[in-house]
User: What shape does this take?
Amino acid sequence: MNKNLQSLMVFVMLLFSQTVLAQTKTISGTVTDAGDGMAIPGVNVFLKGTTNGTSTDLDGKYNLANVPEDGTLVFSFIGYVSQEVAAAGKNTIDISLAQDTEELGEVVVTALGISKEKEKLGYSVTEVGSESLNKARETNVANSLAGRVAGLVVKGTSSGPGGTSKVTLRGIPSISGSGSPLYVINGVPMDNSQRGSAGQWGGSDNGDGIGNLSPDDIESMTVLKGQAASALYGTRASNGVIMITTKKGSKGDDWSLNYTLNYMAEKAVDFTDFQQVYGQGTGGNKPGSADEAKTTGRLAWGAMMDGSSVIGFDGNQYTYSPASENYIDFYRTGSNLTNTVSISKGFADGSFRFSYSNLNAQSIVPNSDVNRNTFNLSVEQNISDKINISAMVNYIDQRSENIPFLSDGPKNPNNFLFLAPNIDHNIFAPGYDEATGAETVFSDDIYVTNPYFITNQGVNDLGRRRMITAISAKYSFTEKIYAMLRMGNDVSNDKVFSVDPYGMAYTNNLQGGLSGRGQSERSELNVDAIFGAQVDLTQDIDLDAIVGASVRNNKYETVGVGGSRFVLPYLYSPFNVEAFSRSYDYDEREVHSAYYSLDFGYKDFLTLTTTGRYDTYSTLAPMKDTGIFTTSVTGAFIFDRLLDIPAMDFGKLRASYAVTSGQPYAAYLTKFYYTSANAYAGVPAGSSPLTLPNQNLKPYTTDEIEIGLDVSFFKGRLAFDVAYYDKTTHREIMDANLSITSGFNSYTVATGSINNKGLEVLVTGVPVRNNDFSWTTSFNMTSMKNKVLSTDNNNNPINLGQNRATLGNAVTAFVVGEAGPQIRAYDYAYDDDGNIMVDEAGLPIRGELKNWGSVLPTFYGGWNNEFSYKGINMSFLIDYSYGNKVLSATEFYSHFRGLHKNTLVGREGGVTNDGVTASAEDYYRALAQNVTSTSVVDGDYIKLRQFTLGYSLPSKIFANTPVLKGLDISFVARNLAILMRKADNIDPEANFGSNINYIGIEGTSLPSTRSFGFNLNFKLN
Assistant: This one.
């Protein structure tokens, strides 16, 4: 790595070093605010008429070399009046900039990638800058939003690098959808489809679309939370929109070269607090033979551990005392190493930026890795004074090796979690017989794969090559009238290679099998044509209008081969299997849309906006009047301009009402479609659907009312952003159950409805700000409630997901009248006096199936703090979540297997209820199986999510260096500590599923991790 850096430095010196001419000089100085004397970072300082320039650092200081004696320096910054100062006779120029009261307010990116003044928006928008995304980074950039945006819930999947990020905005937006917001890059939607997920029977999380992006290429992420904010995107806007603006060059800037190195090391964290008193065995006895030792390896119902010897699964003797290592020591130290180089150049009429980024991520699971190469090019050019062309190309080449399997299924590397406390996992290494290749079975269940076997022999690889492109051409008829044509294409090609390794215990004759080898292509094409104009209707009323049309096309095609029973060991080829299989799938959808947006402004303090959109969907039957028109209305009243309150800088009331539409989540629901199947006895076969189609389906809708307040005081030292919303979906398209005697097991209906309402508050303050020290703090909170209003025709509960531990006896479901998804589990049985009932053996009896709470939090948010002292900066982020429940397989198994500390009660004398005594082993196993509500735990937590400590070296150090002009160093840490949790043995955020069905379900996923690392950012000439 050091050699590469040195080579890079030499290369840069050869390209960009220049001799400082004798007649030029270096000018330095400080730029401050004329009002309060505070330093202003980021001020542009450049030599007039040239591209020679720089910007002020965090202390407002600058150094500009190669300034001729007769030159003029220009100082400019958004919101301030620019100044020009002659350089003659000066080596130091200190400047105080006055605020420009006529300058436009803060500009944010809104729907369709259109920039608007934030103060005039009638809906809630939150922007997160690149600084928050890049320092203590996650491999999936969406996870970096956790705790930073009111109304936003972010849950990473416990699956290692390359895993999915589950993001929900303002509750569960729909019963049938994915729940994920729409991601838009530079105004063009991208595909965020999940590429595989785990369920109760196992499987792997193969990632999502947003996880492929490099954080180093992102300038900002803007969250459009309400329906009014995202209404112009139509079909997918009910889940909200996250606008991604990529980095690009700036017109007029000189050459700029940056090199960034980020390294994060992560360690698995053990949240279990299991008993360490009783060891392996059953009936209070140690195993008496090797066979007994094998079948009781995950049962801790043995004798009290006393340091004596006990026979193991292999016939050897081991000490009967707590093991020196537990399951967490099986994992290695993971690492994420990112190297990014970017180069940019501005011209008088254009700019470009090119970057290359490499991520090498080693999972905590041995032999599981992700390597990602990203190339990004952004170009902007004025072809003439009327024509502007901009383009972005993002190419990603990602390779994931041996992606870990999750949940309670085969090939899971986390199966040592429930070992009896006296067993050291190292005795099961290397996981297979080196002579025969047969898996070393360590328990009574051959489907519980030996983690050493699957990490050493497993194959579950995914290769992805993805190209995201966006190009737009804008023709300006006048300064305020334009037409734009924009096209974006997102194409990804995946290659999968997954194997049941030769020697795997549960396969036929230990011959293994080819789970799948194939490839798929997924694409999304978006084309927009927009005409926009700004017109002064009267002296007091202005109009900003756009009209447009768009086409969106999504395609997915996959082909694969597989087979069982390899003939020759370790030759994992489809030509080396005894039974051959094949698969093929195709899906295509298209949406045609037309839209408009009209912004009316009155005297710069009142704004009224209305939008409309008409959509037709290919997934709905033609000739059935399935097109739909939806609209939104927003208003913003900037009341501070009519009041004389010296302390108030800004005050705005806002309100909105919006309706968006949606199509079925799956295609081909309106007609019968027969598919091919594997041949039978050499004869081609086919299959018919088991879901009854519905040709009368129409788009469902989501409407939302939002009101809000933005106020700022004391020159930005204190600000409040408050929003209340009430959102309801109508006529949702979903599956309902049918009796199989009808020939179908389900049918498609449009009867679902769900309501979300909540209060969002963001408070921002600057308690301290002087020339040397500043402290900025922000606190956001969300109070949210939702209710399922209707489901199918009979309003039956709609089951979503479960874990294998409580299979069929505890589920998540949408239940009418309750918050959703709701955990449903069995309670104790009670007599008329309210006492817990047991059977004649003293074992608890199963009672009623009850609702125990929603998997979504009802109160959540974050507290962020940033401190700056001269060149030193420090920040920390705390986030919190309250009010949700978790269905925990760990809770079930730890009771069932005698690991939970609760099971210590009654070990010697038994557990007595209603005068009847049962052994502790029988009682707790029956408790876990019959009373599944004991597996429901509180999901409340407070976490220290992030900490950074950095230093920006003073620019004067680099004043005479020909190459290096700046260096920022920072120590970073992520997921440092759980400050509060109510669940005893799990991280409340732990989960194995990456889709909406498995939110709030925990069980046998990878352990959570804690990360530490550093950032080095080199700014080069």
